[in-house]
Design a protein that fits this description.
Elements (H helix, E strand, L loop, with lengths): L8 E3 H8 L3 H13 L9 E3 L2 E5 H9 L23
Antiparallel strand pairs: 1-3, 2-3
Helix pairs in contact: 1-2
Length: 86
């Protein structure tokens, strides 16, 4: 799937397929984006009750420089409202 072939606005499910993550993970990242005021997560906007992902934001996300790997076992997860922890 080429980004150039995609519409200018995607559903969260379509963005999940591009990113090769689960639908649930994509919605978690979308909620994180909304909760953080756009500082973290999957860039989305609301269109009524629906969430949409701009293709341009997805392209920027994919083009971002990847930081050096860290040992994720040592990183505390950042909680946000609505996230279940167990």
């Amino acid at each position: 799937m080429l980004l150039a072939d995609l519409p200018d606005v995607l559903t969260v499910e379509e963005a999940a397929a591009v990113l090769r993550i689960s639908r649930g993970a994509a919605y978690d990242l979308a909620r994180r984006y909304l909760w953080s005021g756009g500082k973290d997560g999957l860039p989305v906007f609301r269109l009524g009750r629906r969430l949409r992902v701009p293709k341009a934001a997805l392209e920027r996300l994919l083009a971002a420089e990847v930081p050096p790997a860290t040992d994720l076992r040592l990183v505390e997860p950042t909680p946000w409202p609505g996230r279940r922890t167990g």
